[in-house]
Structures are given as C-alpha cells and as structure tokens.
Sequence to fold (203 residues):
Amino acid sequence: MQAMLEALEDGLAKPERYLPALREQVHTLSSLVDDLFELSRIDAGALSLELREARLAPVVESCVRGLEAEAEARHVCLDARIVEPSPMVCCAPESLERVLYKLLSNALRHTPSDGTVAVRVEPRATEVEVAVEDTGIGLPPDALERVFDRFWRADPARSKIAGDGSGLGLAIARGLVEAQGGRIWAENRPGGGARIAFTLPTA
Fold:
C-alpha cells in the first residue's frame, strides 16, 4: 500500500491503476481489525450475548442465500439439509449467523470446482448439531485440533487453494459457539473432505 501511494504521489502511476487494489487492501485490513477486536473481547470474557429461543432453519437459509453467488462463481454446489420440523435452539441469532457464515466461507475456499458444500442440521437428545461439510482435500491428522488456533494455516496445498485469509475465522467461531453454550470440533469425512460441526442447546 505504501509503495502504491508513493507511486501515485510521485506521478508515476495513474489513480485508476492502483485505487481498486488500495480499496481491496483497506477492506482486508478493516476486516482483520474487526476480527482482532472480537477476539480480544472473547479472551477478556467481555463478550455479552443475548440468548433467546430461535428456529434454526431461517438462520441457515439466510446464510446459504448470502453465499449462493460466491458458490456459483466458484462452481461449487451449496446445499442445506435440515431435519423437519426445524429445531428450536437457545442462541444469539446474529452470532450464530456469523459462525455459519465463517464456516461456509471457509469451506467454499477449500472446495475445488464441481465440489459440494453442505450444511446439515440434526437434533440430538438435549442439543442440536450443525455441521458444514465440504468435498475438498480434508485436513491432515495433526490439524484437527490446531485448526481453531488463531493465525494457524493448514498444509501448503490447502493454503494455496484457500487463498488469502487472516487465519482468525475458526478461532472466532469457536469463541462464539462456546459463548452460546455449545462446543465445536473438526473431523474428516469418510468419503473425503472436511467436516466442521458444532452444537447448540435445545430451547
């Protein structure tokens, strides 16, 4: 950014050459600052969520609709599979939507063209399990625990597919899920690909 700004100030480049890149970099830095701020609140125990009864289906469907264009651009099939009737959970809907958006965005980045990303919602005895599954290359065994560490990157091949990212999304997702009384974990699918699942208490 500094080099681009200096080139513009010295008249070595026209604004239209660097302004789109500068806008993109500012957006990236702004998102990173927001993520770091949220993590600091989670670490300090200052994250205050207003939990209430909510139905899962509308939240899941909203996230899927919001990412349909990105999935189409990547030639990835995005699907939601919800056991009916849609279960009621105790959650903070806005935070739940953020968790799902982060998990789905992460799965889309790691899924090659003609692959599939699916959200599965299944009720258990006293909780509801929500899983985001992809048909990407999966995670190496030593990554299944570390995947929620901040700034952590998977193996180089997976990072290459993933592209840029702050490495904070899954750490924030864990903090938000735990703040809603749930738990979150990562595993590989038997047929290939990764599966990130979390639970929420039933209402």
About this structure: Residues 129 and 145 are 19 Å apart (CA to CA). The two ends are 49 Å apart (CA to CA).
